[in-house]
Write a structure and sequence with these properties.
This protein is an all-alpha fold. Helix content is about 60%, strand content about 0%.
Length: about 220
Amino acid sequence: MDDAAIAPFFATLRAANPEPASELEYASVFELLAAVVLSAQATDRGVNKATRRLFAIAPTPQKMLDLGLPALEDAIKSIGLYRTKAKNLLATCRILVDEQGGQVPRTREALEALPGVGRKTANVVLNVAFGESTLAVDTHVFRVANRTGLAVGQTPLEVETQLLQRVPEEFLSHAHHWLILHGRYVCLARRPRCESCAVARWCDSAPAFLASAGKT
């Protein structure tokens, strides 16, 4: 994707969805953090189904600690890797209570020190909860960035670095949500919907996909 195409690419996504938001359900920064930790290798829909029940009884780090491991595992057992996630989540709650006054920290270093929290999760929290211009590269963002030519890289960090360099400042705060939603509903993994894609004209791969489908 040429540099000149980037602004109209994001302007088009913004026009269609001016205020994009996470599809995870949460009512506090802690609930956001917990939901993102639980969302690894799981769908937002599946996570929301479990957290609606969980957050009703354990909406804070202390209340989640009070819940205990067996009850937490039972509450999230419908989510993949639930045993590991439950252990990490309780360990995170212990750190938040003992070292952070029950609050989610606002720095990348402190966030990434929490069990089960990697760079992607930290980026989501920093962006969504604290308004920082970070870019969380999940499987959708990675695919869309590489496929369109917006940011070509072999690893999420390579893609993130390029995106931060190429995405204009005016679009940075919402860029990862636009890319996630675009990948989730339009630029699908197996067969992208190029024929109905509003930004196909700027995509490096759209011509080939359209040609293979006989839509040129």
